[in-house]
């Protein structure tokens, strides 16, 4: 017999989700009001002493590791950590999601069409090909471009090819190269692993946190190579652009960060340098993998990736990988809408898995 479980209020979940999706068309007069609504709704749903999803545990751990050294932080850094916490706060419970994802996707597409109205006629084959090198589509969306891959993955998992393709198209037109890369890599991995028997996957599941950690350490090394000019010739050879132009100025940002970060100090490497983020002044680093290491240190860095990837089933792994790849070139840690929907879809995958297990007992 299947036990009844607590569920989110469908009405409130729809309202909050739609408000988050409407971020770029300004239904709410201020993003701070949106953050306040998400935080208030999250506090109302707060439940302690339950088994949280991996993503919630990992991000709460990351936030707490920052808050315990709050005296070292500027007000801006405290605010940024709080945005990360607000994004996962609504899922600090074990409540199930019971709403029509297809209808929610309609709203996402509608808001994207509204926000890009007037620019859609600029889309052409040549502009899409140029976008892969220069990332300069006029229809670029700041938040929805990162949310469409999660919708696409949901429809891939649920074998709805029509909506999967629609969300791939939306991801492309929304104009973020890293979002398209995240979706393609995660989709390929999901299709590959889903062909594997459950027994075989369970045997290799212990390797996933290890491989994830190695992947992110390798990306730190590549970021250092980019910052020091080690990838300049390679990038120019294949794109005809300087490495700084191809990465939209990220080479300069990474170079500044690595210059200021004392990699020769073992304590900074292991425990982090909480003031490094402020040295960039008005800009963020556009590399959350570097931020997690530099701000929190290698110890927290390793624990975070272990918590995020431990005991992932194939569906949760696919969503987690999308988020991980988005971390590579952007400031996703402070994008409340993106973190919200990452937790949202991982909760869906988690509850569906629990339902499958309960019906087989």
What would your notes on this structure say?
It is globular, with a radius of gyration of 20 Å. α11 (207-227) runs antiparallel to α16. The chain has helices at 10-21, 31-44, 54-67, 75-88, 101-115, 125-134, 144-157, 161-173, 177-194, 198-204, 207-227, 232-239, 243-246, 250-260, 266-271, 288-309, 314-326, 336-360. By secondary structure, the protein is mostly helical. The protein contains 18 helices and no strands. Residues 357-361 have low confidence and may be disordered.
List keywords for this structure.
disordered C terminus, 18 helices, single chain, mainly alpha, 361 residues
Describe, in short, the structure shown.
With 361 residues, the protein is mainly alpha-helical. The protein has helices at 10-21, 31-44, 54-67, 75-88, 101-115, 125-134, 144-157, 161-173, 177-194, 198-204, 207-227, 232-239, 243-246, 250-260, 266-271, 288-309, 314-326, 336-360.
Helix and strand topology:
Layout: H1 10-21, H2 31-44, H3 54-67, H4 75-88, H5 101-115, H6 125-134, H7 144-157, H8 161-173, H9 177-194, H10 198-204, H11 207-227, H12 232-239, H13 243-246, H14 250-260, H15 266-271, H16 288-309, H17 314-326, H18 336-360
Helix pairs in contact: 1-2, 1-5, 2-4, 3-4, 3-16, 4-18, 7-8, 7-9, 7-17, 7-18, 9-17, 11-14, 11-16, 16-17, 17-18
Sheet having the most strands: none
Integer-rounded radius of gyration: 20 Å
Number of helices: 18
Kindly state the mean pLDDT as a whole number?
Answer: 89
The topology string of helices and strands comes to HHHHHHHHHHHHHHHHHH
Strand proportion, as a percent range, falls in under 5%
Q: What is the CA–CA distance across the termini?
A: 9 Å
In the predicted model, the low-confidence regions spanning at least 5 consecutive residues are: 357-361
Helix content: 55-70%
Q: Note the quaternary state here.
A: single chain
Got a strand count? 0
Shape: globular
Helix/strand/pairing class, anyone? Answer: mainly alpha
